[in-house]
Every structure is written in structure tokens, then in C-alpha cells.
Amino acid sequence: QVLIMFGSLITRGLLLIFGYVYPAYECYKAVEMNKPDINQLRFWCQYWILIAGLSVFERIGDAFIGWVPMYGEAKLAFVIYLWAPKTKGTAYVYDSFFRPYVARHETEIDRNLSELRTRVGDITLVYWQKAARYSQSRVYGILQYIASQSAA
Predict the structure, then answer these.
(1) How confident is the model at residue 42 (pLDDT cuts 50, 70, 90)?
(2) Domain boundary at 34, 53, 87, which?
(3) What's the whole-model pTM score?
(4) Comparing C-alpha atoms, which of 98, 97, 102, 90 is closest to residue 23?
(5) Nearest by Cα to 24 from 44, 8, 49
(6) Which family does it belong to (predicted)?
């Protein structure tokens, strides 16, 4: 049991290093070149788009299939596959799966995001107004208390 937990901890650490830290550094180098290579920038943008999507599905996957043997190791192998130059994994996954799916549903995605922005804005405004009213009443109460103390 302890070995399994220790192995899981190592796998998660390696996933952070090889899935995020190393790619982030390579992306930094691509951005900071004297003459940035557009193909390198495109590659890293596609990589981070895929990682963002995988991060969402990872939360769901961890809850339902995290118990499967070698699940963590498979995630680690997959992120290495994505950025490894010999496999061209990012280009394959992005061009074969992600881009066609998003292109097919782009209008619907844009509409849903627009509705979400509107709803979030409306909810934020309501709570901001409630917080402002509450703050005003608390400040007013404090000022009344101070005034009553100085009058006494």
C-alpha cells in the first residue's frame, strides 16, 4: 500500500515536471528567441490548448478511472508523447481530433461562451451590489457607534 502511494506521488511529480515545467520552459525559449519561429510558437500554443482540455477531463477521469493500474503512468506517457519531437503527438492529436471537433461546434461553443459571460456578468453585478449595500450598512453602523461613544 505504501509503495503504491509512493509510486503515485512520484508519477504525479514527474507529470508536473514533464507535462508542465519542461514544456513551459521550452515555450519560454520559443517566445524569447531573437527571431521567434512561427512553427515552434504554433506547436507550443497547440500543446497548451491540448493540456488545458486534458486538465479538465483529467479531473473527471481521476474520479472514475483513477483506480485503473498504470493510469498515472499512462497520463505521463501521453504528455511526453505530445511534446516529444519524434512522435509529433501534438500535431497529430490537434489536427486529427481537436481542430475538427472545435471547427464542427465552433458556433455553438461561441454562443455558449457568450451566454456564460453574460450570466457571470449579471451574477457578479448582483453580488457586487449586495456587497456594496452590506458594506455601506456596516460602515454606517460603525460611524453611528463611534458617534454615540463620543457623545457619551
Answers:
(1) very high
(2) 87
(3) 0.75
(4) 90
(5) 44
(6) Belongs to the DP1 family.
9 and 73 together in one domain? yes
* CB distance 17 to 75 below 8 Å: no
Query: Quick one: 75 and 132 in the same domain?
Result: no
Q: What is the pLDDT of residues 71-81, one digit of tens each?
A: 889 999 999 99
CA distance 30 to 23: 10
Measured over all CA atoms, what is the biggest interatomic distance in the chain, rounded to whole angstroms? 82
Picking from 9, 17, 37, 32, the residue whose alpha carbon sits closest to that of residue 83 is 17
Tally the residues of the chain.
Answer: 152
Domain coverage including residue 111: 106-152
Which band of pLDDT confidence, cut at 50, 70 and 90, is reported for residue 62? confident
CB 47 within 8 A of CB 98: no
Number of domains in the chain: 2
Q: How many CB atoms lie within 10 A of CB 89?
A: 18
Give the number of other Cβ atoms within 10 Å of residue 91's Cβ.
15
Can you tell me the distance from the alpha carbon of 73 to that of 71, in angstroms, rounded to the nearest whole number? 5
